[in-house]
Automatic annotation (TrEMBL):
Taxonomy, superkingdom: Eukaryota
An example Gene Ontology molecular-function term: ribonuclease MRP activity
Cited Pfam families: Ribonuc_P_40
Biological source species: Grallaria varia (variegated antpitta)
BP-aspect Gene Ontology terms: endonucleolytic cleavage in ITS1 to separate SSU-rRNA from 5.8S rRNA and LSU-rRNA from tricistronic rRNA transcript (SSU-rRNA, 5.8S rRNA, LSU-rRNA); tRNA 5'-leader removal
Record protein name field: RPP40 protein
Transmembrane segments: none
GO CC annotations, alphabetized: multimeric ribonuclease P complex; ribonuclease MRP complex
InterPro entries documented for this protein: RNase_P_Rpp40
Length: 177
C-alpha cells in the first residue's frame, strides 16, 4: 500500500530512459579461418579443425588478438589452427545490451542470408554472452560469479543448415538443459 506512492515519486523525480542496444560493425580483411566440417566435431588432422579449436580461435578474433604467432608479441603468440584458409573479407557485428530470445532467433535467420548468392559463406557463427555478474544463469538458477562469470552459448551454422551449439557456464553453476 504505502510503497506505491513512494516508488511513483522516485520514478517521476528520476529520469528513466529506454536504452537501445549498441551496435558496432567491422570488416576483417584477409582473416585466417579454421576449416570446418559440419559432421566432424573432433576434427581430423589435415582435413578439419575441432570445436575446441574453433572456440579458441573465435575468442582471439573477438578480442582482436593477432593470429600470426610473432615472437615479438608480448600479448599472444597464438596462431590459427590447421588446416585454415584465408578469407578475403569477414564481417563482424557486435550488439551490446539486453536482447530478448526472439530477437536472437531473428538474428540467426538474417545471418543465414549469407549462405545465398553472392555471399556464399561456408559457415557463420553467433555468440550470445550473458552478463558476467547476472543474478541468474541457465534454468533460472542462481548464477555463481566466483572467477570469470562464464555464461554463454555459441552457434556455428553451416551452409547445409547443420549446426553446432556450444554452451559454457562457470564451475559453480547448473549445466544448461
Amino acid at each position: 500500500g504505502a510503497e506505491g506512492p513512494t516508488l511513483m515519486s522516485y520514478f517521476s523525480n528520476n529520469q528513466i530512459q529506454a536504452r537501445k542496444p549498441k551496435i558496432t560493425f567491422s570488416t576483417l580483411r584477409d582473416l585466417q579461418c579454421p576449416v570446418l566440417q559440419s559432421n566432424d566435431l573432433q576434427g581430423k588432422p589435415g582435413e578439419s579443425c575441432s570445436t575446441e579449436e574453433l572456440l579458441e580461435w573465435l575468442g582471439a578474433v573477438l578480442n582482436q588478438v593477432s593470429l600470426d604467432n610473432k615472437s615479438s608479441s608480448f600479448l599472444s603468440t597464438y596462431c590459427c589452427p590447421e588446416p585454415n584458409t584465408v578469407v578475403e573479407k569477414a564481417f563482424l557485428c557486435t550488439i551490446t545490451g539486453f536482447i530478448i530470445p526472439e530477437k536472437i532467433i531473428q538474428l540467426l535467420e538474417q545471418l543465414c542470408c549469407y549462405f545465398g548468392e553472392p555471399k556464399l559463406a561456408p559457415w557463420l557463427t553467433l555468440t550470445v554472452h550473458g552478463f558476467a555478474d547476472s543474478p541468474v544463469s541457465w534454468r533460472e538458477n542462481e548464477h555463481g560469479f566466483h572467477k570469470g562469470g562464464e555464461n554463454l552459448y555459441n552457434f556455428v551454422i553451416f551452409r547445409n543448415l547443420d549446426y553446432w551449439l556450444h554452451m559454457a557456464v562457470g564451475a559453480h553453476d547448473d549445466c544448461p538443459p
